[in-house]
Amino acid sequence: PLAGLGIVFAAAARGIGDGTRTRSAVMAAAGGLFLLYAVNIQDRLKVWRDDVSLWSYDSARNPGNFLSRLRLADALRAAGDRRGSYTALEGALGAASDDRQRSIVRNELGTLRAAANDLDGAEPLFRLAAELDPGNHLAFYNLAMARFLRRDLSGAAGYLERSLRLNGTYAPARALAGALEKRLNDGRSKGN
């Protein structure tokens, strides 16, 4: 808005005849507006410094915004702040407006647990995510991965089949399908 106003002032200064004083005043006003814009954008740059700053700012200004809190949790996780991510996800759960959003949060909470090598805590969260939204392919993929890590290959196959039926292009699920097939084939060849 300020830049547009500056352009209008510049155009007005051009349109003024030979009034050099008027033209100089209009150009000085336009320069002042550009300077004000530069100062204003510097304050915004502090907020945009990194993802944690941006989403912390947005979550504080919009405390009921589910997506802002979810993005803040992702940014905190990427920054290595697992506890902060967990807190942001709890806030997102409070801001969730439907079962689909609650499913997303439960799945994310499960991935935090799984990343901390707590499959016992992660699996119930993945199951709850799948129950809340039976179309959440990520919840079924995560259940498959948890079962695979526990060497429950038939359980992994069932969840993985569901995940791939929901989204057959999800690359990690396709990679898990290859690893699962290899492990099943290895088991069969050892049995023969």
The rough form would be described as elongated
Q: How much strand?
A: under 5%
**What is the average per-residue confidence, as pLDDT, rounded to a whole number?**
87
Low-confidence stretches: none
Radius of gyration: 27 Å
Distance between the termini: 75 Å
Q: How does the major sheet shape up?
A: none
Order of helices and strands: HHHHHHHHHH
Structural class by helix and strand composition: mainly alpha
What helical percentage do the residues reach?
over 70%
Quantity of strands, as a count: 0
Number of helices: 10
Structure description:
The protein is mainly alpha-helical. Helix content is 83%, strand content 0%. It contains ten helices and no strands. The protein has helices spanning 2-15, 20-47, 51-61, 66-78, 82-95, 99-115, 119-132, 137-149, 153-166, 171-191. The protein is elongated.
Short description, anyone?
This protein is mainly alpha-helical and 192 residues long. 83% of the residues lie in helices and 0% in strands.
